[in-house]
Amino acid sequence: MNLLEQTCREIFPQDNDARSQARARLEQLTMPHWALGDVMDLAVDLAGMSKSIEPAVEKKIIVTMAGDHGVVAEGVSKFPAEVTPQMVYNIASGGAGINALARQAGADVIVVDIGVNADFSDLSGSERFISRKIAPGTNNIAAGPAMSIANARKAVEAGIQLALDLAQSYDVFGTGEMGIGNTTPSSAIAAVVTGKPVRELTGRGTGLDDEQLGRKIAIIEKVLEINKPDPQNGLDILAKIGGYEIGGIAGLILGAAARRKPVVVDGFISTAGALIAFKLEPFVRDYIICSHRSVEPGHKYMQETLGCARPLLDLNFRLGEGTGAALAMNIVEAARRVLTDVATFAEAAVAQADK
Amino acid sequence: MNLLEQTCREIFPQDNDARSQARARLEQLTMPHWALGDVMDLAVDLAGMSKSIEPAVEKKIIVTMAGDHGVVAEGVSKFPAEVTPQMVYNIASGGAGINALARQAGADVIVVDIGVNADFSDLSGSERFISRKIAPGTNNIAAGPAMSIANARKAVEAGIQLALDLAQSYDVFGTGEMGIGNTTPSSAIAAVVTGKPVRELTGRGTGLDDEQLGRKIAIIEKVLEINKPDPQNGLDILAKIGGYEIGGIAGLILGAAARRKPVVVDGFISTAGALIAFKLEPFVRDYIICSHRSVEPGHKYMQETLGCARPLLDLNFRLGEGTGAALAMNIVEAARRVLTDVATFAEAAVAQADK
């Protein structure tokens, strides 16, 4: 059996006993019933994911997957493609947005070249960089498929293997990405998986004006028309209209779920990766924490498909890299603290509410 | 001149030069324009508050003001009044919700007896407890004023003096409170200051049912009818329909603002304190960070009065104690990190967007 199929077989729903135990304790804490709302819901989820009412959340890592996109030739981004490798260097040297926010959250960062059109041999000694390169970017999806099915599998399995390796050292994963042009494949994936019209899902990416936005929508419609991905087949969607970093993220989520580790999913592109993972194995939903609501309009529908009506944060982020995931890791830590650090009515001898 | 008037004279608007310098740097960071949205807005505010593009945010404290309320005799709360002192002990011993969330955020906590109906002499050695008691709780505001104007001034000045003392050791303040019954005076203050009907502002507090909620609304309407507070006079509002912890919070905010320190304001009751501070000196608005949107329906209108249309978090919290403020301190730290830790396009040699 291949790594992908093997991993999917190791993904189970959250543990109901641990969820019940967590809920029972939270209902006895010295506060009005469920007064920390969504953070208490998250605490129950952490227990269910980890099968423990003392879920480990201390060691945190953001994995930022980087890839290039042939569709940039269609003029879908305001930034030139060479920004992808430039930002890989920036993240590796600690100067990007994700580095700042991960530092605040006490999370490590690694940037992964899974499909960038550049040679990073000079980064081989960097502690924040690893190479898992499958190809130097996708083909132009407005003219044909992004990659072969074989390469789509390779991208997902690279993400899985990385998660399995990192799961030996880390408790919580965060997804991130860097790839100029990658809101275009992500919008296309959102359209296929949610069934919503492209026009409702597509946003301004890094800052398109009205005319450029109209053009982007037309290109995405063409992408879908030309490639006709099968909405029920995650690898087919990824191969036809995806990206290497999106496949890597899907794999990372699958691998983390197979090890019962929470995965904090970042913004629009990361959520496209989560949708691919969800199509490959629906139980991954139980390990996904939606960090924030992106400015991109399709994000809401994508998150709803994952069962996440209320992401933790809504701060007008549209950066990616894993920045929303990093910031939300503070809330994951807070949820664990609520579960384990707060006294019950009995422990603290506090009177309860009238029934 | 009294401490209150002197302090109000020391509160100035945010510094425009520091704001401009911060904005100029943020616009050059290696990311799409303003891609970290609200966190970047907050970074500009921190610079304007502190007059520095390297605003200090490391040393953080949550001040949880505790007081009792005579109006509890009307049956406005599901919890008995003795829970106020019980929770003071719980916070002092580190077992309350605020302790857990403050620990996560790296913030210290102190609980202040400013008006609790209990003797805490056995807590005198506790590092997390201080006494600034003015009276053992308010009078029943459904029958007359909460306190004398002299005591209202004492409560505010106790908060100011505490902030001035703590400002020597701390960079960021968070407000919190504990006081069974205190959503009732807070709703009354919200009605007076926002001009909205009581019915639209009043919620279920720690968990009232429909009948109890109707009764609470009728009581708050009676509170306003009997006391007729002057909407333009902060001390008059506080004395007639407030609470000691609400006055202490107002003072804490004024004192922090006078020292140009950011104050992260917690939920419904803390925001009532902020409205009193705002009525005493409108410039305090420039130092207030609204941490979260409470479940209480009036909170939205109160925050809008403070110029805060979008609080940082919205997680269905309804606990108080400072819990929302503690969690939001992570975002304050993140804003500082974005301002100082992220490389500019020039520093990192990354290509910029087409104009």
Chain pair with largest interface: A-B, 60 and 60 residues
CATH level-two architecture of the largest domain in chain A: 3-Layer(aba) Sandwich
Order of helices and strands of chain A: HHHEHHEEHEHHHHHEHEHHH
What is the overall silhouette of chain A? Answer: globular
Question: Which runs of chain A of at least 5 residues are low in confidence (pLDDT < 50)?
Answer: none
CATH class of the largest domain in chain A: Alpha Beta
Tell me about this structure.
- 2 copies of one chain form a homodimer.
- With 355 residues, the first copy, chain A, is of the alpha/beta class.
- The first copy, chain A, has 2 domains: 3-54 and 339-348, Nicotinate-nucleotide-dimethylbenzimidazole phosphoribosyltransferase (CobT), small domain (5,6-Dimethylbenzimidazole Phosphoribosyltransferase, Chain: A, domain 1), CATH 1.10.1610; 60-338, Nicotinate-nucleotide-dimethylbenzimidazole phosphoribosyltransferase (CobT), large domain (Rossmann fold).
- Helices cover 48% and strands 9% of the residues of chain A.
- Chain A has 15 helices and 6 strands.
- In chain A, strands 3-2-1-4-5-6 form a 6-stranded parallel beta sheet, sandwiched between helices.
- In chain A, strand 5, helix 12 and strand 6 form a beta-alpha-beta unit.
- In chain A, helix 7 (183-194) crosses helix 9 (210-227) and helix 11 crosses helix 12 (268-280).
- The longest helix of chain A is centred in the last third of the chain and has 19 residues, at 323-341.
- The first copy, chain A, is globular and about 70 Å long.
- Chain A starts with a helix and ends in a 7-residue tail after the last helix.
- At the A-B interface, helix 3, helix 4, helix 5 and helix 14 of A face helix 3, helix 4, helix 5 and helix 14 of B.
